[in-house]
Amino acid sequence: MSNEPEQTADLPRLSRAIKPIRKAPVRIVHMGLGAFHRSHQAWYTQHAGDAAEWGIASFTGRRPDAAEVLAAQDGLYTVVERSDAGDSFEVIGSIVEAVDGADVERFVEVVAAPLTSLITLTITEAAYRLGADGKLDNQAPDVVADLAVLSGGSPSGKPTTPLGRLVLGLAARRDADAGPLAVVCCDNLSNNGSVARSAVMGMAKAFDAGLAAWIDANVSFVSTSVDRITPRTTDADIDAVAAACGYRDESPVVAEPFRNWVLSGDFPAGRPHWEDAGAVFVDEIEPYENRKLWLLNGAHSLLAYAGQLRGHKTVAEALADDSCRRAVEDFWDEAAASLHGDDLRIPEYRAALLERFGNSRIAHHLAQIAMDGSTKLRMRALPVLRAERAAGRSGQAAARMIAAWTAYTATATGLQDPQAAEIAAANLLTGRARLEALLRLVDPDLVADSAIVDLVEGLAETFAVAGNLS
């Protein structure tokens, strides 16, 4: 919560009392209440032609803060659309319940409700707990703990991971005979619907084969490609909303004007008319996913690690650095060689990304993007690197992203990564042993190819000198 300037302290708090937006019935359950969900899925739902029929019960992930602040505003918040031309403000009311994710009882209740038709996910790539082999890591401590809970072998009685909670909710829906629904994955993963299915089925099979069979027959897993740059909200943003709108909103969201949503899959219990708001439904989503994962997210990761090594704090700052921009363009050249289809409009997409990244009024912090690197690199760098090597080319630009990450881990403080302890242990080693230990955390196959290790090692050494990107 911001320290309110004296002149705004007397303004009314945003709520449905001052913005009389009717609450729609809960038909969507969301996991991962955060800024991106509110700038994207919730925005699209409000702008659907049948929005009055689709309310969202949104649950937090790690902490209750976002739910507490939003609940105090009846679920309302302001989207600040920020461009070089200025700001526009819109109140969003599609979230009708904002709930602490630890309230597992309420989560199970709404998932099991017959009216619920969709579960959308923004739980981060790392939350799917998949190993490098693409299967659920059922040895991860939190997965082991949740499986004990689900099997009735733990006195706590409440799963703590998003996967554990989701499986518990689906078990309650089966028991209530509430019918089929769709799980819509909105995390930055290639083939994310299949990833979500693999993770959910992996956990379900581990304790109840009957539940796994029910999920297989009654739950569809929809793949999506999502896109809207949404930086962290600052106190200055909160004050700007108060000054422009005449009310206090303690939880606004700042986003760029651009937005995109591509979906592929079945919706057995129906869905909002998201296409009214510009969403696109396709039969084959992989090319769109790869375009976004490699060109946008891949460039973001490269800028996050190389940019911070060169002293930059935001995407716009890093892109203004000629060395960083060249590294991005080189990576895009490699990625584009494996992106086929006129519908993808790769040259136009790249030009639009440069404009979006250069929006200096969107303070997209590199430290935020840099989180969970050991997971993100598997989707953003490795596919391009492998495609280049298979085509007989070096893959140097993709390898540079991995090299930048290895250099960054040695200097970052408070590294946020699902393998943070293992990364810290690797960084206690020296020389090639250190590099191989880090690469093994991304994908053991990398270490098996000495030519790739040599390539990454040579590139990583250049970062020792002021983040040299040559």
Automatic annotation (TrEMBL):
<keyword id="KW-0520">NAD</keyword>
<protein>
    <recommendedName>
        <fullName>Mannitol-1-phosphate 5-dehydrogenase</fullName>
        <ecNumber>1.1.1.17</ecNumber>
    </recommendedName>
</protein>
<dbReference type="InterPro" id="IPR036291">
    <property type="entry name" value="NAD(P)-bd_dom_sf"/>
</dbReference>
<dbReference type="Pfam" id="PF08125">
    <property type="entry name" value="Mannitol_dh_C"/>
</dbReference>
<dbReference type="InterPro" id="IPR008927">
    <property type="entry name" value="6-PGluconate_DH-like_C_sf"/>
</dbReference>
<dbReference type="InterPro" id="IPR000669">
    <property type="entry name" value="Mannitol_DH"/>
</dbReference>
<dbReference type="InterPro" id="IPR050988">
    <property type="entry name" value="Mannitol_DH/Oxidoreductase"/>
</dbReference>
<feature type="domain" description="Mannitol dehydrogenase N-terminal">
    <location>
        <begin position="27"/>
        <end position="275"/>
    </location>
</feature>
<keyword id="KW-0560">Oxidoreductase</keyword>
<dbReference type="Pfam" id="PF01232">
    <property type="entry name" value="Mannitol_dh"/>
</dbReference>
<dbReference type="InterPro" id="IPR013118">
    <property type="entry name" value="Mannitol_DH_C"/>
</dbReference>
<dbReference type="InterPro" id="IPR023027">
    <property type="entry name" value="Mannitol_DH_CS"/>
</dbReference>
<dbReference type="InterPro" id="IPR013131">
    <property type="entry name" value="Mannitol_DH_N"/>
</dbReference>
<dbReference type="InterPro" id="IPR013328">
    <property type="entry name" value="6PGD_dom2"/>
</dbReference>
<comment type="similarity">
    <text>Belongs to the mannitol dehydrogenase family.</text>
</comment>
<feature type="domain" description="Mannitol dehydrogenase C-terminal">
    <location>
        <begin position="285"/>
        <end position="453"/>
    </location>
</feature>
